[in-house]
Here is the input.
Amino acid sequence: MSIISLEKIESLAPDQASLDAAKKLLKPGSWPTLATDGRDLVWGECQGSGSTPYRVVVCEADAGYKCSCPSRKFPCKHSLALMWLRAEGKQDFQLLETPSWVQDWLSRRRGPNASAQAASAKSKASIAAIAESDVPSADPKAEAKAAAARERNQKERETSILAGLEELDTWLSDQIAHGMLQFVSNMADSCRTMAQRLVDAKASGLATRLDSLPARLYEFPDPQRPVSAIKELAQFHLLAEAYRRQDDLGEALKSDVRQVIGWNIGREQLLADSSALRASASWRIVASNRVTQPDRLIRQETWLLRQTGDDRAPRFALFLDFTPVAAAGSRSPYLVGEILDAELVFYPGILPLRALISQQHAPTSFSNAPLVLPSDDLSAALSDWESRLAARPWLEAWPLVFNRARLVFVADQPYLTTIPESGPPLSLPCNPKQPNLFGLSQLDAFNGIGLWDGNQFQLWWAETALGPWTTS
Here is the structure.
C-alpha cells in the first residue's frame, strides 16, 4: 500500500500543467520498469521523447524524488506520474534489489526533500480538475488542409536546402582556390559563417557537421591538418551531390543522406513504421560519451553491443539524445556494463546503427560478467570498417571489436597493434589524450572494443587477464 496519496501529489505539483502532463504518462507502455524495494523506495524508467528512458526514484516516507530528465520543474511530470501510479495501485511494482543508480541517489541525499515539505502547505493543482476530454471527431476538410500545408512546407524546404547546397559548392570552391593552409588558419570563423547559412537554408544536420569540423581538425598535429581538411571537405561535396541525386539512390541510402542533411524522423513515426528494422536481444552498454556541440546542445551518445540474439541483427546500437547546455546535469541513464534486454527499432539507413527502445523485456541490470566479443582480430575489424566506409563514404566513426591485440607506446603516442602470431602486422594510433592507457601497455594481449574514425582509435573496453578495463 502506497504511503503517498493523490492529495499529497496535488500539494507537490508545481502547477496544473505539470499534473496534466503527468496524467499522460500513466499508460503502462510508458514505463518499461516499475519496481520497489518492499519498504519505502519505488523507482521506474519512463520512456520520454528521447532514445533513452528517464530514471525516476521516489522515497514514499518523505516524498523525496529524483529524475534524470532536464526539466526545471520540481517535481517533474515523470516524478509525479510515478507517485500517481503508486498511489492508484493499478500497476504492479516488481520487488527488486535496489539498483546502483538508486543507491547513488540515496548516498547523496541530505535528508527529506525540503521543497516537498514546503509545497505540502498549500495545494497548487487539482487532479479532479483534469477533464476527461473525448478525442475530437476528424474533420476531413481540416485534415486535407493540414496535409496540403505540410506538402507545401516540405517543397519549400527542399528548395531552400538545394539553394543552400549551391552556396556550399561556391564556398568549397573558394576554400580549394585559396589553399588549405589559409583555410586551416581561419577555419573556425569560415566554417561558422557557412554553417549559419546552412541553418538558414534548413539543412541543420549538415550545418552542425560543418560547425564542428574545426574541433575535429584541431585534434591533429599542425602538419596533418591541411591533408585532413581536404578529406573532410570532400565529404561535404559528396553529401551535396548525393542529396541532389537522391532519387537515383536506393531507399536505405536515400534515407541516410536525408538524415545527415537534416531531415529528422520523429520517435512516434519510427515506432509506427512496420517496415523499420527491429532486433530483440540482450544488449550491453559499452560506452557513454558527451559532446558539446557548437549549437549549444549536448550530444549524449550511449553505445550498445549485442550479446545475444540473431547474428543477422546489427552488432551495435547507438542511443542519441540532445539536451541544452543549460541542462548540463542531464546524463545518460545507463551505466557502462549494464545489460538491456529489449527490442530495439533502428532508424533507416545503409548502416543501421541509431536506435530507440521499442519494447523492454526486463528491468535494466548490471553485470560483472566478461563482455561477449566476436572472434575478429584487429585486421578483420579494420576490414569491416573499410567495407562500411565503402557503403557510406561520409561515415565519421564506427566501433571496432577485436581479439588479441596489445597496446604499445612510441614516445607519447599509443598504438593498438596486432601480436606477432596473429597475422600481418597492423598498428592503429590511439587517442593520446585518453587517460589510463599506460597500464594496458604492460599486458601481453587483450580483447576489446572502441571507436575508430579513420585517424585514431578511442578504446572503450578491454577484457584482460586482470578483469575488465573501461572508460567509466
